[in-house]
Write a structure and sequence with these properties.
14 helices, alpha/beta
């Protein structure tokens, strides 16, 4: 069966992947696939955000245009909405058995990484004693030193970022007092951002002092390399864990090459690339790499809250609920001097 798939994929000659992981970041994975299957070209497009990629894929399919064979995104809810709307092809990947059950959805979609959602801070400007270890401490710090932190705190703009919206929804479900920190953000004049890289560099430089709900794979990697002034906190109250979701398009023009790509990303070989060169924390069990779910486990402890791949992720994507949630969030974080 595998040999026939490889032969058919080689006749197709390429696989088209839409992703929100940049071309540069994904290059080791692309190179590994091409080394394994030299007759198959990879057209990898990782330059769009999660919301833009979702809209582009839907529009192209609706117009009958050539589009992605594989869609791979950190916006788990948007990905599952595409699956629920019938865009995903069934594929019984032989590699899926090595994933945790929460990361597999009906042979239609798979989680691929294990990335904690963290706080970040500027090491030079925020003392070790002040660094917040949970959400209640984060709110207390902002209120204790309003002049120091006003305009110096950043987080995703949930209206522009699909990932940021998803994190905010998780907070509402998991936080003991979900509005407490939002109101503190308002008093601190929160600076919303659409991108992780922007927040990491601005906190490391001191333009901002604190960042909230940041994608931890990037933060942990860069704090140990090019951004030594960046501090990272794995929250002690709970830590949301993101897994980038991948599915094969039902409308794939290169379905066999797409199956090979999906199997490769989930395989021990592909996961090792994710957990070494890409530093994104491999999800698969038994991967020999420095960045894996297993190496993170002691740091996360009992507070890990992986987001399960199921249709409950879609609840707040219903248009009326989405609008209401965003409006309430914006009202809560609107800059004020007092409440």
């Amino acid at each position: 069966m595998q040999a026939r798939t490889v032969q058919a994929a080689q006749r197709e000659g390429r696989v088209v992947v839409y992703s929100v992981l940049s071309n540069k970041a994904a290059a080791p994975l692309v190179q590994g696939f091409k080394a394994l299957y030299p007759g198959i070209e990879v057209e990898y497009d990782g330059e769009g955000g999660s919301t833009e990629t979702d809209a582009r894929f839907r529009a192209e399919v609706a117009a009958g245009q050539a589009s992605a064979d594989v869609v791979w995104s950190s916006a788990m809810d948007l990905q599952m909405k595409l699956v629920a709307d019938g865009y995903a092809m069934h594929h019984a990947s032989p590699e899926a058995a090595m994933l945790p059950p929460w990361a597999v959805y009906q042979d239609l979609a798979w989680g691929t990484t294990f990335e904690p959602v963290v706080f970040i801070y500027n090491k030079a400007r925020v003392s070790a004693a002040d660094v917040p270890q949970d959400r209640a401490a984060f709110a207390r710090l902002l209120d204790a030193e309003p002049d120091k932190y006003r305009g110096k705190v950043t987080a995703f703009d949930i209206e522009k970022s699909g990932v940021g919206f998803m994190f905010a929804v998780q907070d509402r479900a998991l936080a003991t007092h979900p509005d407490q920190l939002l109101h503190a953000f308002g008093r601190a004049h929160l600076q919303p951002s659409a991108g992780t890289g922007n927040m990491l560099t601005k906190v490391a430089s001191g333009e901002y002092l604190l960042g909230y709900n940041i994608m931890g794979g990037y933060a942990l990697s860069r704090s140990g390399k090019d951004l030594p002034g960046l501090g990272v906190v794995i929250p002690k109250d709970y830590t949301v864990v993101l897994s980038r979701v991948m599915f094969i398009s039902k409308h794939a023009r290169n379905p066999n090459a797409a199956r090979l790509w999906a199997d490769y990303v989930l395989s021990a070989r592909g996961q090792q690339v994710i957990g070494t060169a890409m530093e994104l924390y491999a999800l698969r069990e038994g991967v020999d790499a420095p960045y894996t779910a297993a190496t993170l486990a002691p740091l996360l402890g009992a507070g890990a809250r992986p987001m399960k791949l199921d249709l409950t992720l879609l609840d707040d994507l219903q248009p009326a609920r989405h609008r209401a949630f965003v409006a309430a969030w914006k009202a809560a974080v609107r800059p004020v001097t007092a409440r």
